[in-house]
Amino acid sequence: MPELPEVETVRRALAPVLEQQFIAAAFVGRDDLRWPLPENLAARLLGRRFTSVDRRGKYVLMHLDQQDILLLHLGMSGSIRIYDTPPPLGKHDHIMLTIAASPTASATHYVVLNDPRRFGWVDVFPAAHQDSHKLLRHMGPEPLGNGFSAAHLQMVFKGRQGPVKNALLNQQLIAGIGNIYASEALFHAGISPRRKAATVRGQRAERLAAAVVKTLRAAIEDGGTSLRDHVQPGGEIGYFVQRLAVYGRAGQPCQTCTTPIKMIVQSGRSSFYCPRCQG
DNA sequence: CGGCATCCCTGGGAGC
DNA sequence: TGCTCCCAGGGATGCC
Fold it and tell me: What fold, for A150-273?
């Protein structure tokens, strides 16, 4: 599922359910997802209190008492569901946290991580290590934060001979953009996905930066994009799928000029664009 | 360092 | 209906 907007919908759903609440029970159904889970994960989580729920790129960072962070990445097929009664666990429900107002109070919520392909991952580490964490330390700025601008894009694209589409997917340059929103942002900026990243400067960089921000914000408003796996934690689908201009629309008319949308493969991933508007 | 191919894994849909 | 094949929103890794 999950690019920045989908992960943000997860964060927004989790925050009010978790903050200042305790883990009264923890079920961990296997010892690895993409990588081995932290040893004794269930025991380490039991009795802990959540302080706040943040997001960084495509990661959810759940802050725990004792200055720890519970990190979650949903990979390609992961989803979080929140229930108020104990749900039956399915084959791919790997982790369930029982949430309560105190470690021994009766449950208020059940938070379940489902991930059929198991490309997701989970870690627990001291908050002090966040900046040095292997998976976080090289991540680029948040596109919806203060560190992102056309000037930033131009700077990180400088010298890059590869296509701008690939550069947008590079989490070290900008955090949180995945295959859907890379195509969408490029369409809204009127830039071909094949254009060499280094040539996105000046007005083009301005248009792209603005399109990235606008596209991501609109998708968050709609609860993300549901193609096959993504559901919001309350079970709602993400409605941005109805607003996709090019992604998944090969052969359909461009909404601006009616030219058929084209699909190409770049570094093994599909890209969609209008050959006329994004010449 | 940049760029590309490969790999991890399961399930859904297309095509026969 | 049932089988096979291909594809999928992620990123680490290793090779050139």
Answer: Helicase, Ruva Protein; domain 3 (1.10.8)
